[in-house]
Amino acid sequence: MPSPACSVHVPPPTRTPDVLVVGGGIIGLVTAWRSAQRGLATALVDPEPGGGAAQVAAGMLAAVTELHHGEQTLLALNLASARRYPRFAAELTECTGRDLGHRRCGTLAVALDADDRAHLRELHALQQSAGLESEWLSGRECRRLEPMLAPGVRGGLRVDGDHQIDPRRLARALVIACERAGVAFHRVWAERLTVAGDRATGVVTADGTALTAGQTVLAGGSFSGRLAGVPEEVRPPVRPVKGQVLRLTMPRAHGPLLHRTVRAVVRGGHLYLVPRENGELVVGATSEELGWDTTVTAGGVYELLRDAHELVPGITELPLTETRAGLRPGSPDNAPLLGPTGLPGLLLATGHHRNGVLLTPVTGDALGHALVTGELPDEARPFTPRRFDAAPVLTERSA
Ligand code: GLY
What φ, ψ does residue 378 adopt, rounded to 5°? Predict the structure, then answer.
């Protein structure tokens, strides 16, 4: 029996929605779900809800192993979302009856040569200075945990708190949860934001329909900056960062090839192998700034397979079942843009870059709060889109 929070809720069809979410990827969906759960009549516009980058992403919940210098503020948000994941996944499963492939398997980050080892040592020091749990292992200890690793592995970091979820299952479950919560879906492209006076009022869709709403949330991933009609001063500064990802199948007969997520930096490129319980092995990812290009290239596939083979030589025996490319929504500081903009009635939920899957729970909570109160909760305040507002130019007279 679904909990009361998950019960079917269908608002009267003629009512103008309180909230219109533009974009039906996991960030748009979680925003719409939380909005509807808070009693707001909510609509979502996207030709294919549940599509987008979640169809490509590996689904690592890796706040600790993906820590980067200069991203300490983002770390706090990542950790808050990671802590929320077990309850979030349980709630979504309860609402939809769908298993999300949430695996608390931990992560092992390994080094293949002296440079990689120096890089990992530095990451370890950064993790320790941030009070995060990770354990340095020798190469032999790494292979004891993961016997299929190459004999040349020089050492690694064991992070038992970095887990995984299946983003495709997550997206599907969020579509169902939205339907159950009474979100109205418009399966069409949003073409232009409409503004009346000094307020965003909704969008016009590709078929010419005007969809109006009290508040509009722009959650279009890397496309968020491209919606026509958005005034220049509030246009989200997001750009597409292409990631090519492979999917292979691990035969069940010989047991899993890997037991946990394995990551490495190989020749400066980030590589990860994410083994799922159903036998899928996701290998990613390239990081390319090439505009809105989602072509899978021979070079991208070659580099991923070459590096993955160096790390786990047995990988070349596996069937290669899928190659795909998606676009991360990169922002100038690699952190998301959440909440109200300088244009009344327009909010953003975009710019999640490498962390969209990880940040799904906290984004839903932050936007749900902002839609009801007009304010971001404390934890999300540093991620206001207004941090990118142009600084006032100081003239001699004003200085
Ligand atoms: N977080 C993994 C990626 O963006 O490739």
Answer: -50, -45
